[in-house]
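Suppose a colleague, Dr. K., hands you the sequence of a protein chain of 242 amino acids and asks what its three-dimensional shape might be. Before reaching for any lab equipment, you can write down a predicted structure in token form. Begin with the sequence itself:
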Amino acid sequence: MKDKVIKIKAPDGKWVAATQRGSFDNPIIVIVHGLAGNMNEAMHYNAARYFEKHGFSSLRINLYHWQKGYRKLHECTFSTHGRDIDAVLKYLARHRAKKVFVVGHSFGWPSILHTKERSYLAVAGWDGSKLPYSKKEFARRSEEPKGRVLDEGYLVIMGDRMAEDSRVFNSLDAVRKFDRPISFITVDNNVVGNWNNNKKMHAVAKVKKELVVIRGATHTYVEDGKEEELYAATVKWFKKFI
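The predicted structure, expressed as tokens, is then:
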């Protein structure tokens, strides 16, 4: 099966870039990347191929994209991300997708918490971020384009409104109200990642849930064999709802 590049129109006329792998007749997993990420990062590209071998199609999406007519990160808010994911879910419904699941890595997880179109059966957070962030995050300003700067070895420019979102949105409150089964898949508590935050979110979730720790992995699961463990845990979770 080859990847099929498609574009999906959001309600405001912007495009959402997406890559489909497999038929919509199969259960399908929507893959949402993290901050400054994209659908063709190795962990998402490899996930699509792993899922295919285990009976799932996939739709990887870009929350922002470099071509004209698509969003830029500094123009976005979490609500924007939620609406764009909703547009993707409505696209799948129009194409009669049978069973839909969603995964979100890092900042992709609070983006999923902003969705309204809850047509998916279950979700998985891949070391998902917990908000609010502290005031010291995004303290540095950018004047062109206007926004807030996050320094992670490379500079990420986030719009003022999304930076403010990250300081006021409460993930624990959102998880308490979330009405779909959740798998919190995270990493060890002694490495770079969100183990403690995922433990807190898992504790307050009122739906069917699980907390899975991928031992020896860091936030992007780049260690040998850890992507496969991440994918296997995701498949095992979603198969409970087929």
